[in-house]
Amino acid sequence: MSTTASIPAAETARPLAKAGTGVTGLDEVTLGGLPAGRPTLICGGPGCGKTLLATSFLVNGAVMFNEHGVFMSFEESSDDLIKNVSSLGYDLGALVARKKIAIDFVRVERSEIEESGEYDLEGLFVRLDYAIKSVGAKRVVLDTLEVLFAGLGDTQILRAEIRRLFAWLKERNVTAIITAERGEGALTRFGIEEYVSDCVMLLDNRVSNQITTRRLRVVKYRGSAHGTNEYPFLIDGQGVSVLPVTSAGLAHSASNEVISTGVPGLNQMLGVGGFFTGTSILVSGTAGTGKTSLAAHFVDAACGRGERCLYFAFEESPAQIVRNMRSIGLDLQPRVDSGLLRFEAARPSLFGLEMHLARMYREIENFAPAAVVLDPISALRGETGDVHSMLLRVVDLLKSRGITAFLTDLLSVEGMDKADAGMSSLMDTWLSLVQLESNGERNRGIYVLKSRGMNHSNQIREYQLTSQGVKLVDAYFGGGGVLTGSARIAQEMVDAAAAVRRAQDNERRQRDIQRKRAALERQIAELRAELESEEEEARKSLQHDEELEKRMQAEKRAMAIQRGGSVS
Amino acid sequence: MNQVMNTAMEESVLPGALYNLRLYVAGQTPKSITALANLKKICEEHLVGRYQIEVIDLLEHPQLAAGDQILAVPTLVRRLPEPLKRIIGNLSDMERVLVGLDLRPVAAP
């Protein structure tokens, strides 16, 4: 017991050696690649991309990992194979010429083969061994081994030989991919999955609403953890890419850096003076509200700071957007020419949602932009749940990379209940563009429906698309709310008239007061004059009385003298 | 081991084309030994004087396997007369070999 406990962890759980596929995303799903030195089974229906995926594995091995490979084809001649994969940008012919890859076409034609007595498939082993030695291969593809079942009659011998082949491959320590057709009710038509137990992948090509989507799933991977979901994958001129975008992570960091919206007035509406970098911004509005114009401003501002922008246009061609934005005084062409701005335009109906997602993922990986515009997300067709899940993954993808996402959403005229369905929770900032209808005209209003992590204006601001770009007009409030357009202008005129009237009123009142003051002052003067004259009169009568008194005293004395009496 | 067996032509005895036959084997296994023995027997019975047998051991000449599209061993390839025919197995089923070599009509009694 004590001995088992003392075994070092590194020995008990030695990580499985893996051979990188070099396929974008697949190495993430498989946490490093296919099991090195072991066979991997890839099964799927016709046209699923088994051959192309297997070829990518070989080509990438030779080009990226310096591991040479052998392609044993049971279905296509080597010329056909080289031609077919050249559409993926692989120059298989050159790799063959440089002895990095060997192709052996094994032709199995039942009508040309007569069976008589016992046989084994040693011939195949000899060929494979010879091919492996000729290029020093570490990787082998057998595409599609099950063709043997159609070409040879004795399935018992075949099964025994296939079992021996897998053991032989393991013994050679080559990393092998065996492709097989998907069977009814089983992974493969002839059940060869029972011989390959290390790693099994399933490819699928589903059609929904006339749109095909390729998906990949790792059914099992012995000895290793792996992504268990179905991942969409993409085959086009740049090879095969798998899209391991899940909505798992919520661990992205939050930035405090603020970037301009590109519209000064709008910056003011947002408490911090713009958007936070790495957040998701939704601009919703009905037709003709200027969503694309706002996006163009945003992009132009980002490019002006020297940041790279990726613009996914779903409804207009890049040339059309550039032309249209010139009408509001924004020339995006220099931004495109300088390489800071890249347009990726595709009709939504061109691929399914998953393919769009996969395409975006790859473009974002390649271009490494600071900001991404999706214009408009409402153009993406599909079940509401699917669209939501796709957008969720886009937003998560962008957030995890700190890329600012600018999404526009075209609302039907009826209202915003549709957009509301689940989108709100994904968005950090939601600007709503509304048509304000009154007095027989429509005017454009913008308001900040939400903006996480900042104080923001609660006003509906009118804005105009002028030849100098989007301009926010100062808000005007009348009795019935915000006034826009000619109503605002009319109100301004009314107000101006009222101001004049008020000025005139003031003047009149001033004059009245002056007149009143003058009148009062006149009254006061009169009263004072009256008072003065009364005082004068009083003084005069007092004087008169005194004189009279004096005269009476004098007469008294004179009378006393006359009587001869004494003056007592 | 390249073993070429030439027998003098006896066209007067059995008129017909020359048979150029190649037997691919991988080492001296019981299957390959049986196959060669069976082949010789058939040739002596049906192709006296107008056959060539070339035995190719793929363990010694692995590069030859791809050229003749060899998959199973033993494989008997009829290179001449045209068209090319392949018969796989130890050739123990004589009838199948004869049919495969066009030495007997398919609907033979």
How would you characterize this protein structure?
The complex is a heterodimer of chains A (568) and B (109). Chain A is α/β, with parallel strands linked by helices and 568 residues long. Chain A has 17 helices and 25 strands. Chain A has two domains: 229 residues, P-loop containing nucleotide triphosphate hydrolases (Rossmann fold, 3-Layer(aba) Sandwich); 218 residues, Rossmann fold (3-Layer(aba) Sandwich), CATH 3.40.50.300. Helix content of chain A is 41%, strand content 24%. The N and C termini of chain A lie far apart (158 Å). The N terminus of chain A is likely disordered. In chain B, 26% of the residues lie in helices and 26% in strands. Chain B has three helices and five strands; from the N terminus they run ββαβαββα. Classes of the chains: A alpha/beta (568), B alpha+beta (109). At the A-B interface, β6 and α7 of A face α1, β5 and α3 of B.
Secondary structure tally: strands of chain B? 5
Count of alpha/pi helices of chain B: 3
Quickly give the CATH architecture of the largest domain in chain A: 3-Layer(aba) Sandwich
- Quaternary class: heterodimer
Report the C-alpha radius of gyration of chain A, rounded.
46 Å
* Spatial shape of chain B: globular
Estimated helix fraction of chain B: 25-40%
Provide the residue-averaged pLDDT of chain B: 80
Total tally of structural domains of chain A: 2
- End-to-end separation of chain A in angstroms reads 158 Å
Any idea what the CATH superfamily of the largest domain in chain A is called? P-loop containing nucleotide triphosphate hydrolases
Quickly describe the structure.
Chain A is of the alpha/beta class and 568 residues long.
List keywords for this structure.
heterodimer, A: Rossmann fold, Rossmann fold, 9-stranded mixed β-sheet, 17 helices, about 40% helix, about 25% strand, disordered N terminus, B: about 110 residues, alpha+beta
